Amino acid sequence: MQEIFTLPKWFRIFCYAGAIVMLGTGAEMVYLEFTEIKGQNIIFMGLAFFFLAWSMYAYTRLKLVLDPKTVRFTGGLRPHHFSWTDITTIDMARVGRYSEAQLSIRYSDRTLRLGRSFFRKKPFADILDRVERYAPEGVFTAGYRQVKAELPA
Questions:
Q1: Helices 9-35, 43-60: crossing angle, 10 deg rounding
Q2: What range does the domain containing 91 cover?
Q3: Distances (CA, A) of 92 to 30, 49, 89, 120
Q4: Which residues pair with 94 in a beta bridge?
Q5: Transmembrane residues, as ranges (predicted)?
Q6: 42: region left, alpha or beta (phi > 0 left; psi from -120 to 50 alpha)
Q7: CA distances (Å), 95 to each of 24, 33, 85, in order?
């Protein structure tokens, strides 16, 4: 049975609305540059708003699909697709200012990093449960077991 993990629907709607606002603001900056305020180089601010709009839209397209045979992470710049038997090591560490857990799955010559800050607590716990269920036994590191024991249930 395949399971799909994405952002919550309310947050996706918020990002879509924010992307539309950013596009409108960027278009306004470009319009001002070419009509009213010539030579002030605010077109670069418009480009920054276009980049923010694209980033907010791209963030909503990230999707993790776990099934008993494969792992797929799509929607980003570097999509991942591999079999559970391709995994060499699974590690977990605490990263960032708030020491959030980050799961690192190494396979072939690539690494898939999944952060708890992206998936929230319950879906991240479900992801860890599926990883422990589907992955081969010998791939978990001591760091994974230590951080997993520290995570609240």
A1: 160
A2: 69-150
A3: 45, 35, 10, 16
A4: 101
A5: 12-30, 42-59
A6: alpha
A7: 35, 41, 27
Question: Is residue 39 domain-shared with residue 105, that is, in the same domain?
Answer: no
The distance from CA 17 to its chain's CA centroid, rounded to whole angstroms, is 19
Is 109 in a helix, a strand, or coil? coil
Structure tokens at 93: 């560490």
Which of 30-39, 44-53, 66-75, 84-93 bottoms out in mean pLDDT, i.e. has the lowest? 30-39
Do 77 and 140 share a domain, yes or no?
A: yes
pLDDT per residue over 102-148, tens digit each? 999 999 999 999 988 888 889 999 999 999 999 998 899 999 999 99
- Paired tokens of 113: 């990093």
* Residue 111 CA to its chain's centroid (Å): 13
